[in-house]
């Protein structure tokens, strides 16, 4: 019996998209996980893990993938890095992105220039990477994220409209994820409940509470089951972002039949297409009007939102793309 190739799977946070990729790769390869929780790296243990693996697969070009790529290069083993987001962005106006300068910029560029293969999750990210790094497009493979379907059918929505957004509550996300205009918009739509789901990472929660009207709820961090229940209950999902490498929460919400209200930032048009409502950036009034328009749409549009995600972002596409990339490097 042939033993599956062993892959060192590197990440610094077990987000949903990271866990999805780990599960997809585990169907074809033996996975050894390296979860880098902080800045201190156990180099002897990491070196042993890289040496025993045939390939390094990492999420994002940052400190946690620096030594894995370095060691892979040392032992002439291939490395695959998924990039697109904080590691490749440069948005100084909202304080976001490694490419603004400093050591983080140097580290991410070193990794990206030395990885055997680069994968990103949208054509927007591919273009952004080309512009910020001067790389030819053929160096950057695009493979959309794949979404499991935990809902099965279009969920029924409760009579009282619930308006949802998901994102960690911290100062960069007040504008990068559009949390500030989302909370401000609630005052313009008082007959709806606005819900912000996401862990409270710093004092930004106090800024939002200071402007929140009584129809705004801040849940803090929730379990996976609770998050799915919020998607089921929400009528409208808002992503008033200034930057998105993909927009997984938007896609998950659409899968649950939420009508998306989004900006045209980043990859959001690739995910939403013509199904949702587009609004201008940093405008609470535009978000409120977008919510009203979305609520006026019927169940047919909810089904269209769900059908779009099922058709464009199936797990099988992501799985076979990743398998193909890795197998080409292991030949």
Task: Output the keywords.
single chain, 331 residues, alpha/beta, Rossmann fold, 2 domains, six-stranded parallel beta sheet, globular
Molecular structure report:
With 331 residues, the chain is an alpha/beta fold. It has 2 domains: 6-146 and 314-330, Glycogen Phosphorylase B (Rossmann fold, 3-Layer(aba) Sandwich), CATH 3.40.50; 162-312, Glycogen Phosphorylase B (Rossmann fold), CATH 3.40.50.2000. 42% of the residues lie in helices and 16% in strands. It has 14 helices and 12 strands. The chain has helices at residues 16-26, 43-52, 63-74, 103-114, 123-133, 173-176, 179-185, 204-211, 224-233, 248-255, 268-272, 284-295, 299-312, 315-330, and strands spanning 6-11, 30-35, 55-59, 79-82, 117-120, 140-142, 162-166, 193-197, 216-220, 236-239, 259-262, 277-278. A 6-stranded parallel sheet has the order 2-1-3-4-5-6, with helices on both faces. Strands 9-8-7-10-11-12 form a 6-stranded parallel sheet, with helices on both faces. Strand 4 (79-82), helix 4 (103-114) and strand 5 form a beta-alpha-beta unit. Helix 10 (248-255) packs across helix 13 (299-312). The longest helix has 16 residues, at 315-330. The radius of gyration is 20 Å and the shape is globular. It starts with 5 loop residues before the first strand and ends with a helix. The model has no long low-confidence stretch (mean pLDDT 96).
């Amino acid at each position: 019996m042939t033993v599956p190739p062993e892959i060192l799977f590197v990440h610094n946070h077990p987000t949903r998209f990271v866990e999805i990729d780990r599960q997809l790769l585990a169907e074809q390869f033996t996975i050894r996980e390296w979860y880098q929780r902080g800045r201190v790296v156990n180099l002897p243990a990491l070196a042993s893990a890289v040496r025993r693996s045939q390939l390094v697969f990492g999420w994002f070009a940052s400190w946690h993938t620096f030594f894995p790529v370095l060691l892979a290069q040392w032992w002439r083993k291939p490395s695959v890095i998924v990039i697109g987001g904080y590691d490749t962005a440069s948005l100084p106006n909202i304080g976001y992105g490694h490419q603004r300068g400093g050591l983080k910029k140097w580290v991410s560029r070193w990794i990206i220039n030395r990885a055997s293969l680069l994968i990103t999750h949208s054509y927007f990210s591919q273009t952004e990477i080309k512009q910020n790094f001067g790389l030819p497009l053929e160096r950057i493979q695009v493979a959309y994220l794949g979404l499991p379907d935990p809902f099965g059918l279009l969920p029924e929505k409760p009579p009282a409209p619930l308006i949802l957004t998901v994102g960690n509550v911290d100062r960069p996300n007040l504008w990068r994820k559009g949390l500030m205009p989302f909370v401000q918009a609630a005052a313009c739509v008082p007959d709806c409940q606005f819900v912000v789901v996401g862990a409270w990472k710093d004092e930004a929660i106090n800024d939002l509470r200071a402007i929140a009207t009584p129809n705004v709820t801040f849940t803090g961090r929730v379990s996976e089951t609770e998050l799915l229940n919020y998607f089921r209950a929400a009528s409208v999902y808002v992503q008033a972002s200034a930057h998105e490498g993909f927009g997984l929460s938007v896609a998950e919400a659409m899968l649950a039949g939420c009508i998306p209200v989004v900006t045209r930032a980043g990859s959001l048009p690739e995910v939403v297409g013509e199904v949702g409502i587009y609004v201008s950036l940093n405008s609470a009034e535009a978000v409120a009007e977008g919510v009203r328009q979305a609520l006026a749409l019927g169940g047919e549009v909810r089904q269209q939102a769900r059908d779009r995600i099922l058709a464009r972002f199936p797990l099988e596409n992501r799985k076979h793309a990743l398998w193909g990339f890795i197998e080409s490097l292991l030949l």
